[in-house]
């Protein structure tokens, strides 16, 4: 089972990956949304913002998300690490229910190009 520190590292790595592919993805620049990622097996939530192709992550809080972010993710810590490391396909994980994603329709379309 992934630890809080490994999950934080995975989110930092994802942020770096998004920043490096900003020109290629074409959709991250100017994308400013609140974000929460609930790690279900650890029962902690990372909150932050997706701003200009980077994820600014705050310290984790215990339990489910304290508020309703514009983009809400929920998954196990192991799945988060596997997604970021490229070992788990996001679309398949989402389709099978391993990853839950809630966002507005426009945000879903933009996220599709980033993930």
Q: How would you sum up this structure, described in words?
A:
- By secondary structure, the chain is an alpha+beta fold.
- Helix content is 40%, strand content 27%.
- Strands 1, 2, 3, 4, 5 and 6 form a six-stranded mixed sheet that branches.
- The model has no long low-confidence stretch (mean pLDDT 87).
Give a short overview.
The protein is α+β, with helices and mostly antiparallel strands. It has helices spanning 4-20, 22-25, 77-84, 90-96, 105-114, and strands spanning 32-39, 44-51, 54-57, 61-62, 71-75, 100-103.
Number of strands: 6
Which bin fits the share of residues in helices?
40-55%
What's the story with the biggest beta sheet? 6 strands, mixed
Q: What is the CA-atom radius of gyration, in angstroms?
A: 13 Å
Let me know the average pLDDT: 87
Shape descriptor reads globular
Query: What string gives the helices and strands in order?
Result: HHEEEEEHHEH
Number of helices: 5
User: Could you list the spans in which at least 5 consecutive residues all have pLDDT below 50?
Assistant: none
Which class of secondary structure composition applies to the elements?
alpha+beta
Distance between the termini: 23 Å
């Amino acid at each position: 089972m992934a630890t809080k520190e490994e999950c934080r590292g995975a989110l930092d790595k994802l942020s770096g990956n998004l920043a490096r592919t900003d020109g290629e993805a074409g959709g991250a620049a100017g994308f400013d949304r609140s974000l929460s990622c609930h790690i279900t097996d650890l029962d902690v939530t990372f909150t932050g913002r997706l701003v200009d192709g980077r994820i600014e992550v705050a310290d984790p809080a215990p339990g489910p998300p304290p508020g309703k972010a514009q983009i809400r993710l929920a998954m196990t810590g192991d799945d988060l690490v596997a997604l970021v490391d490229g070992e788990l396909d996001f679309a398949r994980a989402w389709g099978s229910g391993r990853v839950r994603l809630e966002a507005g329709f426009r945000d879903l379309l933009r996220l599709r190009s980033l993930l």
